[in-house]
Write a structure and sequence with these properties.
The structure is a single chain. It contains 3 helices and no strands. By secondary structure, it is an all-alpha fold. The protein has one domain. α1 packs across α2, α1 packs across α3 and α2 packs across α3. It starts with a helix and ends with a helix.
């Protein structure tokens, strides 16, 4: 339960940071940005566990969460262009 809560809190902060780092005009509100940050944190957690970087249930690292959120922002940007 605590790892889920930690992932959510880090994801909220990470979404805002990833949006500031990624260049370009993303026309989405702050709620969608934080949702993408939380999703990026979950993606980073699952990929890290699959690669053996994190134990299952271990909180995701901050840098990995930012990278996951940026990847999701890029994917959303590519989908919106079509």
């Amino acid at each position: 339960m605590m790892s889920l809560l930690g992932t959510l809190i880090i994801g909220l902060i990470v979404g805002l940071i990833a949006r500031a780092i990624k260049p370009g005009n993303d026309s989405m509100g702050w709620i969608m940005t934080t949702v993408l940050g939380v999703a990026g944190s979950f993606v980073a957690g699952y990929l890290g566990a699959a690669l053996g970087l994190y134990a299952p249930g271990q909180p995701v690292g901050f840098i990995a969460s930012v990278i996951g959120a940026i990847l999701l922002l890029v994917v959303v940007g590519l989908i919106r262009k079509k």
